[in-house]
Amino acid sequence: MTDSGEVIVLxxxxxxxxxxxxxxxxxxxxxxxxxxxxxxxxxxxxxxxVVDPGYWASQSRELEExxxxxxxxxxxxxxxxxxxxxxAASGGEGRLTLSVEEAAIALGISRAFAYESxxxxxxxxxxxxxxxLVPKKALERLLASAMPENPDDETxxx
Length: 158
Fold this sequence. Notes:
8 helices, globular
């Protein structure tokens, strides 16, 4: 694992069918980069950088979705909008991730604060190539964990 808490995953399409095994490797924190036994030459545009591997080690279902996004399999499953370039997705409900800017808007925070929060690890994210993406499910889970169990326990803003 690198000093920044990142693990590089080569050939995410190989791991898309093996998210549990990849999660186990991420949990061990001993491999960087994580290759695949096929020996296939990795495409630098689909190399996945996993930020905060400890988090992703316990989220194999989410990790599977991220691997499918990274490998372009959503296009094969018909989840991309027609007419878009390969790897492009519409802004609709079918998308699994948000850009950092979109996450900032959804959270009601500034773009700069969102990037700072991503850098600190406060907002769960992945890096595919040079792009930083925020998985919607991870963001929803983060928000759900911040909600009080009993809404009556909330203290009103005064």
